[in-house]
Amino acid sequence: MNIVGVLIPLALAMGLAGLGTFFWAMRSGQFEDLDGAAQRILIEEDSDGEGAP
Fold it and tell me: What keywords are annotated for this sequence in UniProt (predicted)?
């Protein structure tokens, strides 16, 4: 029964840490451009100045 007294506060602390991390990510703009990365991977870049082989 003593372990429950440790696990419940630990679970609450981990949940609050995860929630805090989520709100930090929201405030820092991590979720601003959700489609940008998906579109950038489809764009073919010409890095060496010549066409693709």
Answer: Membrane, Transmembrane, Transmembrane helix
pLDDT digits (tens, 9 = 90+) for 24-53: 999 998 888 878 878 888 887 766 655 555
Cβ(23)–Cβ(31) under 8 Å? no
Provide the token pair at 22.
């989520």
Q: Where are the alpha helices (DSSP H) in the chain?
A: 2-27, 36-40
pLDDT for res 45: 73
Global confidence as pTM: 0.59
Tokens of 6: 């440790």
User: What span, in angstroms and rounded, lies between the C-alpha atoms of 42 and 45?
Assistant: 9
Residue with tokens 């703009």: 29
